[in-house]
Fold this protein.
Amino acid sequence: MAFTIGELGKATGTKVETIRYYERIGLLAKPERTSGNYRSYGKAELGRLSFIRRARDLGFPLHQVRALLSLSDDRTRDCATVDALARDHLAEVERKIVDLTALRSELSALLDSCEGGTVGDCRIIEALAPPATSGETL
Amino acid sequence: MAFTIGELGKATGTKVETIRYYERIGLLAKPERTSGNYRSYGKAELGRLSFIRRARDLGFPLHQVRALLSLSDDRTRDCATVDALARDHLAEVERKIVDLTALRSELSALLDSCEGGTVGDCRIIEALAPPATSGETL
DNA sequence: CTTGACCCTGTAGTTCCTACAGGGTGCATA
DNA sequence: TATGCACCCTGTAGGAACTACAGGGTCAAG
């Protein structure tokens, strides 16, 4: 029910130093301490750190992670504020899903051609290719 | 048909300094120069830089971006090498799609509850919550 | 009671940009 | 022709987000 920093790190795939860093910058609250001055964490911190790490893995910078966390931290916000914040992030999430889906297609196609024994043309760059500035004929 | 570094930056949403940085670390080849010593780029560089930026936005570190680019750069690789590399990245891409989809659901739910006029409980942390270590009962 | 795995605080290094400083290019326009 | 102004050049230094020690304390096992 209570973990050490090392256990929390293992459970979330985070280096111990990184957890202390997040505490230092205020992304994680200062945890309880044991009699021997060891940090002691519960399941709430496990969830929060897990969220942070996965959001980071998805390319969100820490200031955006902080904003996302504030959606659940700050129960005093009014609807309009929450709405605007969530809407922006939703748009970004959807954009990323589109890009990842294109990348997945291209990696799949590459694997399929490999299965046939030949390397085949790699169009992986085209998968995430030029910005969708409508109307260009490059 | 040929762009300056500033145009390339605008087209890909990249700062000029970042493009020069990518050149310095060998992620982009040294481009042609004009008579006035300006860098001159073509559409190949536009595609490549676009790919790099979007892969970065999706959370891939530069060494992985380099590996992905090598799939299309290195025409001498054998199938087994390409296969292993592509397979690893495909797994990671799929994992990210799962996470982003969960995050999208949670943000949508939050927006829906807002639309109803109430802030509603935010389960955004749960969306990307603890690692899927099967069998835990926290 | 000591040994090894873990924890503590600090600080310095790495990655990936980002922002000047100090100077040159190139095109419009007065 | 000159004189802006926006853009380019090569540095180098700063910032964000970690990551890796150094030097020392804690604790369960043997």
About this structure: Strands of chain B lie at 32-33, 39-40. Chain B has two domains: 1-59, 77-131. Residues 99 and 124 of chain B are 12 Å apart (CA to CA).
